[in-house]
């Protein structure tokens, strides 16, 4: 990848640069948001810590949609779109509280903020809880930080509709790791279908109309639902 980037990228990154006079960050997961011959989207979920002028340490984070373009010199960053979650609901309700407090559901900062803001529909929340009875789930993306449309199309993403979540690891094993057992990932996908998901993407094509596979979903699982309730 080329180290060059388009003008204005630093300005677009400004929300990530306001953590304090001293700051550090840790990437939790990076996954494809879309991949075409000359354009790509990579979604980077990260956690940040910053020290304010008064010495107080603040913790936060974001998911950044990194847009890349391919030229004869290689791939270069063309734009950054940091997540901007809505504020948390004043009265989140028991379903949201169960998800954000569950010790087997791991949400990076932007995804956690999305759930607290009511940006994941009840059916998806209930499915997360059902899957967590069997699996430890590392979520990567819920709503903010994901492209608005299915990449390269004019079709609205189920993430934008607040009906989908992505998973980068199951039981502590990353989807993209070749050492992760196929049976673990395939079993999770089938159990997601049993939990009500209608559109499930992953690294292998399973039998049944709910499943799909492509180059974008080699590194994560896409779990989507077709209703809000």
Describe this structure in words.
- This protein has 229 residues and is an alpha+beta fold.
- Helices cover 19% and strands 34% of the residues.
- The model has no long low-confidence stretch (mean pLDDT 93).
Biggest sheet statistics? 7 strands, mixed
Radius of gyration: 18 Å
State the secondary-structure class: alpha+beta
Low-confidence stretches: none
**Strand-residue proportion:** 25-35%
User: What is the 3D form?
Assistant: globular
The string of secondary-structure elements, in order, is HEEEEHEHHEEEHEEE
* Share of helical residues: 10-25%
Rounded mean pLDDT score: 93
Distance from N terminus to C terminus (CA atoms, Å) equals 43 Å
Count the beta strands: 11
Seen as an oligomer or otherwise, the chain set is: single chain
Number of helices, where a helix is a run of at least 4 consecutive DSSP H or I residues: 5
